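Render this sequence as a predicted structure.
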Amino acid sequence: ADYRPAAPSVRKMKKTADTLTLVLEKNPDILETIGKKKTTQFIVGFAAETDDLDRYAMEKLRKKNCDLVVANDVTLPGAGFGQDTNIVKIFDQNGLLLSLEQLPKHEVARRLLHLVAERLQTGGGDADVR
């Protein structure tokens, strides 16, 4: 999660008012931390977006020192959370590498693993994803 409660309650919070305000604080960014410590590791980041997918994916890739970023627009039908399918775009340092139409999530994972394996074998070069 990107944020957590600033002051977690140690007891159940009883329903006493019509509204509740929670103060959240930022969690440490694990991907950014890994990217800063990167030596020879191959790092894949993930970006769930609602707008400007391409721009935000490339920003994440560069800022967090990823080799690939798999991004999806969670507003699209058939993509995102709570579904068995996804629609993704995969980016590398040169930009958009691959767009995958709506596929079962296990197929998206299979293609991503194939791409990573190819890149590892070729030292990061272009891979043919089937």
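Summary. The first helix runs from residue 30 to 37. DSSP finds three helices and six strands in the chain.
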